[in-house]
Design a protein that fits this description.
Length: 254
């Protein structure tokens, strides 16, 4: 929980860019932050959102590390070249986006990297926002070795056939039966993607399947309520859902 540390405790972390094995065996970059000393530590894969492999993702990785997590944020946009996060994200959009198969392979590679670290406690979760939330749900259903998943306003989990594409050929909700770990969902009731109706449909499916899930929906918030660098930030809803997220991961991974 926020501000739950003891002032006498030592706190330290290290954060750096590393290379990991991603899709098709390619070497991709990843941002890795982890606590110094202590352990063993639980791990998280933070899947980037469509704004890119950006500074917000790196700050968020360090924020989770301050709460005891080894966090790896893979550059799922490696295939689209390099530049500023905005420039690379635009290249990705023009090319139709990263394919689901590649992102799932990058996620599996990130999980393998984390679990093979000497300080790992063997448990890893996945979290993502926006398109990263969609990828998180997909990973929780199709990638082995995930102990807990947090979908933050993932648009496109519920997707009509006309919105499918070569990069995204299957709606993630169609894999819901394979969901193999506890799932936390954070949603704003003023969001456009996913809409309230999309969240209702997803919850109905998970409930019917008897899956272990919990959804938290927030009035007065839309898409991206955690993005403190944008006008969509909502302080009260962000901090409440942040605490729920930390408690969820602590419960399942520590």
């Amino acid at each position: 929980m926020w501000n739950s540390f003891n002032t006498v405790d030592y706190e330290g972390m290290i954060a750096e860019t590393v290379s990991i094995s991603g899709h098709e065996g390619k070497s991709i970059r990843a941002y890795w932050s982890r606590p110094i000393g202590g352990g063993p530590h639980p791990s998280l894969v933070l899947i980037p959102h469509m704004p890119g492999w950006d500074e917000w993702c790196r700050e968020t990785a360090r924020r989770f590390t301050a709460h005891g997590y080894s966090v790896l944020c893979p550059n799922i946009y490696e295939d689209f070249g390099h530049g500023t996060p905005t420039e690379v994200a635009q290249k990705a959009r023009e090319a139709g986006g990263a394919t689901d198969d590649n992102v799932m392979a990058d996620t599996a590679g990130a999980l393998s990297f984390l679990k093979n670290q000497p300080a790992s406690n063997g448990k890893a979760g996945v979290i993502g926002m926006c398109s990263g939330g969609r990828h998180t749900f997909l990973a929780a259903c199709t990638v082995e070795g995930i102990y807990a998943a947090v979908d933050c306003w993932g648009g496109g989990v519920v997707c009509p056939p006309e919105q499918l594409s070569p990069a995204r050929p299957v709606a993630p909700i169609d894999y819901a039966e394979k969901l193999a770990c506890p799932l936390l969902g954070i949603f704003g009731n003023e969001d456009f993607s996913p809409t309230v109706e999309d969240v209702n449909k997803l919850e109905a499916v998970l409930k019917e399947l008897g899956k272990d899930y919990e959804f938290h929906r927030y009035d007065g918030a839309g898409h991206g309520m955690w993005y403190y660098d944008k006008p969509m930030y909502r302080q009260e809803q962000a901090m409440d859902s942040w605490n729920k997220c930390i408690e969820f991961f602590d419960r399942h991974l520590k």
